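User: Fold this; tokens only.

Assistant: Input:
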Amino acid sequence: MPGTKSSKRIPRKKAAQTLVRCGESLDISCARELHQELSKALGKALPVMIDAGRVERVDTAALQLFAAFWLQARLRKLPVQWSNPSEALCRSARLQSLAAGHLRVRLEQRPIPGGRAIKICAEDSGTGFNAQEVVSALGSGNKLYGRGIALARRLTTRLEYAGCGNKVEAEYHG
């Protein structure tokens, strides 16, 4: 009609990207296939979206491939995003990060009247936890955490937490 503006829509161009879909298992048996798929994605020189929502099993080999891929993508200035990473993948990545941390354990023994005292000191690089809060909550029902603390308290003469909950000293007299 004359005098009216056209309501014709102009299609928007979708941003081109490469989609990498992960299967249920990302273990060593799939490493070659995953490497090939990630290499192809790098070769396309487009932003990459990794769909990891179906992942149920993952091992260190796959995590190492992802780390190497991420580094190569950054060097090429290619954005990489995760789409719906599964809890299994996130948990494995968190556990793998423990390999970069540290755990120090020190054992001491000294004589005491009627026997000896054994002291175990442990410190790790983790974020720790509020030990006082966990200990006070131990008697309030069936918790899914803190059972190790309750057991250690029963087996030791003294149990103390320090730092941000990432240091513990336990002493046994016997």
